[in-house]
Amino acid sequence: METTDIGLWGVPLAMLGGAIRVSTPFIFVSLGEAITERSGRINLGLEGTLVFGAMSAYAVAVMTGSPWLGLLAAAVAGLCFGLFHGWICKFPKVNDIAIGIALMLFGTGLAFFFGKPFIQPSAPDLPAIPFGAWSDIPQVQAALNVNVLFLIGAALAVFLWWAFRNTRVGLIVRVVGDSADAARAMGLNPNTVRLLATGVGGALAGIGGAYLSLYYPGSWTERISSGQGLMAVALVIFARWNPLGCFAAALLFGGAGALGPALQSVGVTQGYYLFYAAPYILTLIIMIATSSPSRTLAGAPGELSITK
Amino acid sequence: MSETHNKAIGVETIGMTMRFGAFIALDDVSIRVPAGSFHALLGENGAGKSTLVKCMMGFYHPTSGEILVDGRQVAIASPRDASALGLGMVYQHFTLVPSLTGAENLVISREKVPGVIDWRKERTALAQFMERMPFKLPLDVKVAELAAGEKQKLEIIKQLYLGRNFLVLDEPTSVLTPGEAQEVLGLVRGMTKAGDLTVLMISHKFHEVTAFADDITVLRKGRLTGTGKVSDLTHKAMAAMMIGDQPIAALDSRAAPKPDAEIVLKVKALKAPDRTGLKSIDIADLGVRSGEIVGIAGISGNGQKEFLEVLAGQRPRNNGEVMVRGAAYAATRAEARALNVRLIPEEPLKNACAPRMTVAENIAFRTFDVDGSGKPVSWISAGAIKAFSARLVEQFKVKTASLSSPIASLSGGNVQRAVLARELTGEVDLLIVSNPCFGLDFSAVAEIRARIMKARNAGAAVLLMSEDLDELLELSDRILVMSDGALVYETPIAQASVQTIGEHMAGHH
């Protein structure tokens, strides 16, 4: 692609494009985690699920030639990881955070093991829609080339926000997450609800992983995720367990992640590496700014092991 | 939503017996609660009250016995069966989901909830339902933001909304102010009189039973020990049915207060953040004299807990001073020891004990590191700890399997006795107490109150925080009311009126 010089305008434009491109896995993982946490459990294993999802999506896409089958494979793999987590956590005295860390390592390890033969071959990409076709400027075109998964993610955020208030399932998940006693009094089994919520959360994280390997960066390597799965968990807390908040926060993180490459593209040659750290610094700043030693987190589900 | 405006139903049990292994929790208990009556179920902790109602609600399956609903024999195998028959229970602790609104709580607790909830339709239906109810409540507010009385009303409304016309209320007023309790029970009473509702209320409070109930049934150790019309019974007769002929520790008579006694505890312009960090507590001026009990009344969550934590050194203060006998007091171990300050926090197992350490170790927490003359020791003598604890266990009648059992294995009353033993032994100049009798049974309560009174008569200054107004009225020389983080009202005990105190607790002034 030939570049037209549009000066410093390139930075916000590249950040917008980057936000859309980079944020998609954040959106899926954080929405998945929001569902799981709203039901009263934390699944830290989503990092492992993400990586395993990326690997399985890539492998299936290579073998079948269809990125959509790859996506499906990632979702199923994620579902299995989620259900496994939910199943172990139903036993008494099992700590969901410890299990999550174990599954994170297990998921990444398993993905490296099975993913070795797929580092070389190339898989078909997931399709994108060129919303920037009206413009002649290549940077605009590049920034507005939006992958379908981003649109699905945005729709999903709105849907979840609506569903948490207006559907039976949504209310049940909130009841279980806020008070297991109340749920039992209603004849609900908290473990079953959490098992399913963790399963769905895992499936969404798997889809996030498929986006990584099948669109951006678009190949399977062992360093495909740089902690996105973990950062998404922090992001859910920052978003106060609100799906729309998760979407906005994911965009913010994506934009911050695009800052380094954007600066580099407009010719900043020194220190831009520092800006690669922007998402991590942002995480730290947000966590510090929104925490307080003497106040509990507003909006936190009452059954969550970290806020109980 | 099913048509809920059915008439009240009557429930009867015949020869209910419940065995857990060799233990007989319920022994041949028959009670009759006619439709439209308000029946009180009395008894000490462990007397079998909750076993009985759990059998009626289908949580337990009785070993033998029958249940009749409106004169017909029924089989109740699960809570679902009970609910289908119109039997519902309001628990002592709220079962509402705090982060959901009242309307969401009501709708989701229904048997059949549509997959997608049409809120406009539901709201109209709820508004129609609420018009028939004597209670007025905001349903669009999160339950967490409701006052305790409103939550209790919502619990009752929920049962009625679900079409249950026989309600078991398990100590329904334990978290309410006297005013709220009067209102809630008055409304419930009105519904029973109108024949819309039958109520079986578990209670400890005789004055509520006398004011609202028609009949009582008393259980002791799983047996029915008395029943009758409330109008025929005195409080004394009810107490006798409840506790039998076992001796009850009597309160020492109150030694005459000395108005010019030394002010032991002085708190001035104290400010500290509360647990939400959004508000602060603000104690302008408080003095407690030697030989008096100053009671602090208040609904839970109005800053009493934070105030206690500041006095106990568990919470930093922003400014202000706490003086004990004229010396600044920051609740260090050395200061507490030098000034003879003792503390009995609420939930003693959690706040005053190391649950897995032994009874002996827990009792020795104040003294294990000093020798007889108060000098620090470098080697701790296990034998001395044992001997010291054995003496206190004996003296305070702590029932424990052995001195080396973990203190968490003791019953609530015995944990509190062990803590009292530790705190009340030796010189006590200032005693700070919070909800000392919460969840304890009759005889333990009487004994613990007697100990506190004894400490007062021996010259200790006592600051007593309690959510139980009866306890404050029984023990205090002066009562202060804490509301919204500040002390808003003070009255000497002679002029104390439950009405006025209740209004200040509710923040109506």
From TrEMBL, chain A:
Membrane: is it a keyword of this entry?
yes
- State the compartments where it is located: Cell membrane
Q: Where, by residue number, does the polypeptide cross the bilayer?
A: 6-32, 44-62, 68-88, 97-119, 139-164, 193-212, 232-259, 271-289
Specify the protein's topology with respect to the membrane.
Answer: Multi-pass membrane protein
Q: What is its main location?
A: membrane
Keywords attached to this entry: Cell membrane, Membrane, Transmembrane, Transmembrane helix
The entry lists its GO molecular-function terms as: transmembrane transporter activity
- One Pfam entry for this protein is BPD_transp_2
Report the GO terms under cellular component.
plasma membrane
Tell me the protein's name.
Answer: ABC transporter permease
Organism name = Mesorhizobium atlanticum
Tell me the lineage of the source organism.
Answer: Bacteria, Pseudomonadati, Pseudomonadota, Alphaproteobacteria, Hyphomicrobiales
Automatic annotation (TrEMBL), chain B:
Q: Which GO terms describe its molecular function?
A: ATP binding; ATP hydrolysis activity
CDD domains, per the entry = ABC_Carb_Monos_I (cd03216), ABC_Carb_Monos_II (cd03215)
Query: Which keywords does UniProt give here?
Result: ATP-binding, Nucleotide-binding
Task: Please report the stretch or stretches of sequence annotated as the ABC transporter domain.
Answer: 11-246, 265-509
Question: Has the keyword Cell wall biogenesis/degradation been applied to this entry?
Answer: no
- Reading the lineage from the top rank, the first entry is Bacteria
Record-linked InterPro entries: AAA+_ATPase (IPR003593), ABC_carbohydrate_import_ATPase (IPR050107), ABC_transporter-like_ATP-bd (IPR003439), ABC_transporter-like_CS (IPR017871), P-loop_NTPase (IPR027417)
Q: What family classification does the UniProt entry report for this protein?
A: Belongs to the ABC transporter superfamily.
The family database entries (PANTHER family) matched by this protein are listed as: CARBOHYDRATE TRANSPORT ATP-BINDING PROTEIN MG119-RELATED (PTHR43790), GUANOSINE IMPORT ATP-BINDING PROTEIN NUPO (PTHR43790:SF4)
Q: What is this protein called?
A: ABC transporter ATP-binding protein
Phylogenetic placement of the source organism: Bacteria, Pseudomonadati, Pseudomonadota, Alphaproteobacteria, Hyphomicrobiales
